[in-house]
Amino acid sequence: CTVGVVRETRPGERRVALVPTVVEKLTGRHVRVVVEPGAGIAALIPDEHYTASGASIGDAWSADVVVKVAPPTAREVASLNPGTTLIGFLNPRGDPEAVAGLSTAEVTAFAVEEIPRISRAQSMDALSSQANVAGYKAVLLAAWECTRFFPMLTTAAGTVKPATVLVLGAGVAGLQALATAKRLGGRPTGYDVRPEVAEQVRSVGARWLDLGVEAVGEGGYARELTEDERARQQTELERAIGTFDVVITTALVPGRTAPTLVTEDAVRGMKPGSVVVDLAGETGGNCALTQPGQTVVRHDVTISSPLNLPATMPEHASELYARNVAALLELMLDEQGRWAPDFDDEVVAAACVTRSGSATTGEVR
Ligand code: NAD
């Protein structure tokens, strides 16, 4: 089959769905890869690197399978021929109308967000690969905005204490943030409503903050807290947050707006010059004072809510994403490189959000 790598058009999106090393692997499996001119430019990959890896430069939108990073815009959907397969981040839970649009356009679409978090599909887990980038970059941003050092310094002018860093939500992004804060010399502490992550938090050299509120939901993800649990959590967190120089928040509940974990009172209780980096801005934010996509100063605390951090590291973010996409493609190719998805396969079935012009389920899982 032919796989098309298109140029991303959403503002600020610098990633590309396949990189030359991964193209080479696919062409070795009898797949023809067509790259839209300039598709890799924002990730600093010139067209010649793709052609050197066996791809051709041309009309990638007419390929059998179009691979993308960001959800397609209306104009991009209009560029897809009926019967085309699309793979990418499609935000099916946040934007079901866009999925309906793909269905109307008779596109068969696979949303990488819906790939189940099972061991067999780990190599395809784009949520994790990109969350790693976001968690890492969030700490660098916090260190940049913070008025204090991260590491303990012993100098001729005396000793400086290390920064204390609290990470709320210890999923993939949170664990990477904890590990990065530790490497920078900070003193990280992690918190989550899933008690089983305490061990993972400790394994990256961080402390575990136990607030006694647990909320494990479907598929191992967090569930929404009850009113009572939320009130208890906020009281306990308000008390704890004031003792940290930096707070990084990553708490998400699938299909819901992000929970508020850092109230205005908690910000007021922080030392002047402290920093909050809120990675949940896309779904409303974990801090009550967050302005998604902006950095604001409130009560002498800097509150930053960057959107799409993975796009700020397009080289490695694209490389990791490309490996995820290739693993998913390989699952659906036969020995001769022909497109042969098995819709009964657990991973294929879960990721497929529209098929042959009709949504696979009335409601996205
Ligand atoms: P996510 O991005 O959905 O959420 C981030 C974190 O926020 C989660 O750890 C969640 O528990 C936490 N959270 C939600 N509400 C909270 C609240 N009110 N207070 C504090 N924390 C809150 O999570 P993710 O990083 O995508 O990981 C989700 C799940 O997937 C986890 O169970 C993870 O272990 C699992 N996972 C499995 C695999 C695999 O086995 N292949 C790979 C990656 C992730």
From TrEMBL:
Alphabetical GO biological process terms: NADPH regeneration
SUPFAM superfamilies: Formate/glycerate dehydrogenase catalytic domain-like, NAD(P)-binding Rossmann-fold domains
GO molecular function: NADP binding; oxidoreductase activity; proton-translocating NAD(P)+ transhydrogenase activity
SMART domains: AlaDh_PNT_C, AlaDh_PNT_N
NADP as UniProt keyword: yes
Record field: catalytic activity: NAD(+) + NADPH + H(+)(in) = NADH + NADP(+) + H(+)(out)
CC annotations in GO: plasma membrane
Keywords linked to the UniProt accession: NAD, NADP, Nucleotide-binding, Oxidoreductase, Translocase
Any Pfam family the entry gives: AlaDh_PNT_N
EC number(s) per entry: 7.1.1.1
Protein name: NAD(P) transhydrogenase subunit alpha part 1
Organism: Allosaccharopolyspora coralli
